[in-house]
Amino acid sequence: MVRTFQITVTAIVVGILLGTLIAVLRLSKNSILSSLAALYVNGFRSIPLVMVLLWFYLLVPSVISKIVGQPNMDIRLLSAFVAFSLFEASYYAEIIRAGIQSISRGQVSAGLALGMTGGQTMRLIVLPQAFRRMTPLLLTQAIILFQDTSLVYVIGLAEFFGVAYNTGNRDGTLVELLLFAGAVYLVICLSASTLVRILQKRLAP
Amino acid sequence: MHDPQIMPTLAAGLDWNIFFQPAFDGSGNYLRFLFVGFQWTLHVAITGWIIAFVVGSIVGVFRTLPGRVLPALGTAYVEVFRNIPLLVQLFLWYFVFPDIVPGFGTWFKQSLNPLIQQFVAGSLCLGFFTAARVAEQVRSGINSLGTGQRAAGLALGFNIPQVYQLVLLPVAYRIIIPTLTSEFLNIVKNSAVTSTIGLVELSRQSQQLGEFTAHWYESFIAVTLLYGVINITVMIISRFVERFTRLPGYVGGK
């Protein structure tokens, strides 16, 4: 379970930071930057997460060994961190882009009229409001991400689900442990999404 | 599963001729090998989609019905299927479901060949998982029509099934075609998860190709492109469907 949360939290933090950057780039006036950002988002969104994980389990080890040689960290875990962070960034970028676009043009004009630069307006005026507005969506995406971490099974990394499966397979209690794992996910995700719904009601003006 | 210690690097260069070499299982060359995976991906995605569409429509309609029991059932369905990871659901369908249904398990495991077992479990899993998402789309499509349409139908003397069949659903489906398209794309992507129970769909084939030939990059690039091809094709088809089904005065209509 620790590993599940490790991956989830890393991917949320990196995903939102990188996602914000990509969303801003995608909305920029520079057509090269915006089309690069669009390519990133559409590229990641059109291939299955399983393939993304396999890809990074292929790429990360060979890149790492070229740069630093033998890493002293679990290479599977590192690959999963990178894959989930980059993959989630593309999903977060779309949510954040929609959030930024929902802030009215008047806010941007007001910021610019106060003598702020474009970057300052984005950072001090637009993004804080956008983030407040999209908190529920970001959290919902985090719940989906939490569920998706079970897929690291495909690169042989054992997190909560993998451990449950392996234990069940070893002890001949597969049915019980799979049902148990399902129940644990259901309880966690259901409570989390109920909390998000309450938060959403509170944030709504 | 490959071992990162003996990973090939790109320095060796890409060798595309690998796709014309005979496959390890004697079924032809590797191009054909990937094509088999491509077909299974489509089979499982389309079968799953049919289940998702039927079940999702029923559940979605349940959630908009008057009364208490049926909407609550619909909500429970959506919550359960949305809050358990797909991989867990797949393993439940494949390992647990045949065991807890009396009599079914032995028949399922003994008289069907493994590929069919994997296909059945995979389609059911993807179908019921996606149904929860389709149900939400159907519900929001029906709700977006407002109460006026429903009231008008009832005022004309239709009963509830008639109102849904003749008034609400024909319009609701047309409104939600774009979101249904993205759900279909999701089911195609999610079908990659069935590789974990051994179904020989695209991503499974790409792993096997990599394992047997060590040409991981060529294999992954080809499969990634094939997923891209499916994506683009589905989007083009859905654009046509949208054009032929849109209604004047509604989203996307003239």
In short:
The complex is a heterodimer of chains A (205) and B (254). Chain A is mostly helical and 205 residues long. Chain A has eight helices and no strands.
Give the topology, please.
The complex is a heterodimer of chains A (205) and B (254).
Chain A: H1 2-26, H2 31-46, H3 49-67, H4 75-102, H5 105-113, H6 118-148, H7 160-171, H8 174-203
Helix pairs in contact in A: 1-2, 1-4, 2-4, 3-4, 4-6, 5-6, 6-8, 7-8
Chain B: H1 30-64, H2 69-82, H3 86-100, H4 104-111, H5 114-143, H6 146-155, H7 160-190, H8 202-213, H9 216-245
Helix pairs in contact in B: 1-2, 1-5, 1-7, 1-8, 2-5, 3-4, 3-5, 5-7, 6-7, 7-9, 8-9
Protein model, in words:
- With 205 residues, chain A is mostly helical.
- Chain A has one domain: MetI-like fold.
- Helix content of chain A is 83%, strand content 0%.
- Chain A has helices at 2-26, 31-46, 49-67, 75-102, 105-113, 118-148, 160-171, 174-203.
- In chain A, helix 7 (160-171) runs antiparallel to helix 8 (174-203).
- The longest helix of chain A has 31 residues, at 118-148.
- Chain A is flat.
- The model of chain A has no long low-confidence stretch (mean pLDDT 88).
- Chain B is mainly alpha-helical.
- Chain B has one domain (4-245): MetI-like fold (Orthogonal Bundle).
- Chain B is built from nine helices and no strands.
- Chain B has helices spanning 30-64, 69-82, 86-100, 104-111, 114-143, 146-155, 160-190, 202-213, 216-245.
- Chain B is globular, with a radius of gyration of 22 Å.
- The relative contact order of chain B is 0.15.
- The model of chain B has no long low-confidence stretch (mean pLDDT 85).
- Chain A binds chain B through residues 46-51, 54-55, 57-58, 61-62, 65-66, 75, 143, 147-148, 150-151, 153-156, 161, 165, 174-175, 178-179, 181-182, 185-186, 189-190, 193, and chain B through 1-2, 4, 7-10, 79-80, 82-89, 91-92, 95-96, 99-100, 185, 188-193, 195-196, 203, 206-207, 216-217, 220, 223-224, 227-228, 231.
